[in-house]
Amino acid sequence: MTFEPIHELVGKAIARFPDRVAIDSPQGRLTYAELDERAGRIAGALQAAGAGAGSYVPVLARDCRELIASVLGILRIGGVVVPLDLSAPPARLRLIVADVAPGWAVLGSAPDAVAEQVLADVAPHARTVTAGPHASGPAAPVTPYRATADDPCYVFFTSGTTGRPKGIVGRLGSVTHYIQWETELLGVTQRWRIGNLVSPAFDAVMRDVFVPLSTGGTFVVPPLDTLLDPAALARWIDEARIDLVHCVPSLFRGLVDAALASDLTLSGLQYVALSGERLAPADAGRWFGRYGDRIRLLNLYGPSETTMTKTFHFITRQDAERVSVPVGRPMPDTEVLLLDERGRPVEPGTVGEIHLRTPHRSLGYLGLPEETARVFVPNPLTGDPDDIVYRTGDFGRLLEDGALEFLGRKDHQVKIGGVRIELTAVESLLRGHPAVTEAAVSVVDDDGATYLGAHLELSPAGTDTDPEALYTALRDHLREQLPDSAVPAVFVPVASLPRTISGKIDRGALPAPVRRTVADVRGGEPQSPTERTLAELWLGILPVGRVGLEDGFFVSGGTSLLVVELLSRVNRVFGVTVALRDFLQSPTITTLAAAVERELLAADAPLDDLLAI
After folding, report:
1. What per-residue confidence (pLDDT) applies to 78?
2. What is the mean predicted confidence (pLDDT) over 343-350?
3. Together in a domain, 491 and 534
4. What is the Cα–Cα distance from 432 to 425, expressed in whole angstroms?
5. Which range marks the domain in which residue 550 is found?
């Protein structure tokens, strides 16, 4: 098949549908003809300023009409688009622009202090072009650029492991391949209205933009702050007659809640495409219960390094009964390899690391050749240096029907007490409790004691419940389906979990779980030497700052593994053995102190030794 750059596919739509609405946003509408005129003006101004093939050009515009016109204009001259979200922290914007070191930039037509300051700080010599109608003066002629599939076309920045943004350089042919695949898969036509629910600085925006604009459809942007209000989002999707939205499962969960609480029919919506996180089967089940099979759910998987998506699965009612929803099968020209730690294929049904083999990948990380070589590696099955696969760092396994099940990243699988725990599974179950709307679980290492901590966004039912009663209920809920070691020892309620520009939970920005301050202790403060010593041991392994004589060990965050740790410390300090069954009958300081003193007396320990303790 002859390669066609994505902006030329948009050009064909412009020629066919000049008077159709290309962009519908809170700032106003733009027809295809108007979009073409703006893009041509920006392309001509950039070319006249010396920009051309391979030039990195950041776009610092808040108006999405100007942003999209800039993207098209930059691609027309062979430039590399660097879309920025001006609502991001200025420090992050400065890091990104500094990494790109641009000689040119596109600004919005309205003065913007953030954009101007960022350029002044890190790219003061960049030549600027202003987007917007007639902002750059008379349109300059554009010398056509003959694009190839391997041309770089964009840079999107993701959070690196060190906290510094890391740029992923997109390949032009890979964008065209994905857009043509999705439009054909879903049967997109010029009548479709496709919603935009992601930041312009996230690579998923490319499908929101180019799926409609390459077919004559309309790119539709919701009013500001709609994404923060699921009920408003559901109303907008309904009233704006949206055919397709791409979103992350955590946002979808809020949409499901809002839909169930309303009488909205969402009569225009045909598809919801989900990616970026694991979809909870219960959320799919609730969606089917409300809308049946009329609005189809599509599960997508693929890291940004391999260009948006590389596997897909149309979700069924049966998937809602599974432990997890599959991410399906590879799209054309893509192969999924599941390999063990030695680079050998794993048996079907066995967990392996996901490697993606496709020519439609990105060009790697901007200015980071060693990092690129670390994840884009020769195929372990062939050893051919020209046969490159992307090592995702994700785990998965093939189900009996051949579909791929995504099991999470390496750093989301932990071992506590020798038991492997999938943190996303704990989070999914927490979200299934009526008191919790969102959760993020992490591992806490506290003075030798290892346990899980859970940050929670609470529902009204959760905020209206006494905290200790709530935490007890959550532990009981989790223990119904999880091993004891997978039950968080500490819960941290937060107003909202921090998120990345793509809408995912930003785990690196979570505050460290800290010991809870218990306002009231049951049974009074420990008094005797034995009680005070036991309290110190107790507090050494539990996430609480105080303990009373009658406080329950498990209510305070204890688990069966931590019981073993506590009793082993008791044995080391007192030189006695307290039976586990005796402690479990009444797991309090009072009971434990009585058991210790009983064992000391039975061992005929001198009274002076006891007092010294």
Report:
1. 95
2. 88
3. no
4. 11
5. 529-612
